[in-house]
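If I may wish for something, please walk me through the protein I am sending here so I can picture the backbone:
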Amino acid sequence: MILYHGTTYKRAQSIFKDRAIKKDCERFFTEEENGDGYSTDGYIYLTNELTYALYFANCHHFVDKSEVLVVFRMDIPDDQLLPDFDEMRYQDPTGTDRERYDSDLDCSLLEFKTCRINTDISFDEYTVDYFGLVLEKVNSIADLFDNAGCNYEYVTSHYTKRQRNFIKSIPWKRA
């Protein structure tokens, strides 16, 4: 499955140096800083929706003030994907959304546009592409992740013209 991982250039520097996205890294979404919205150590968090990766990269920007957002794109075998129980716990504390899906992974990907894996993503093992977005060159970024809180089907079927054009114009580079 094609998945995305959004971060800032400051954080991406170690990814490029290590030639891997590591499951053990300094966390942005910690329980101390974010309460119920924390990420569990030992996982890489991914999304199946490109603009959601950009949204998370922008969230990191507000912390480390990096002026470049970076989104990685990779093809991860389905059998390595795990539900993002952190996002499910945060977004669906009663389990109502989970009941509508055949599996937790389906719920994670289709309702919350997230999943996770418990292994590093090495550039030598996986084909990984990336692009960087320089914030000062973008007129406005917030409208690129319109509908970020909606489910996968809604977001992808309601892309704005600007979102569609942006996605088509991405100059992906091999990592």
Remarks:
- The first helix runs from residue 9 to 18.
- DSSP finds seven helices and nine strands in the chain.
- The two ends are 18 Å apart (CA to CA).
- Residues 2-174 form a domain with the Heat-Labile Enterotoxin; Chain A fold (CATH 3.90.210).
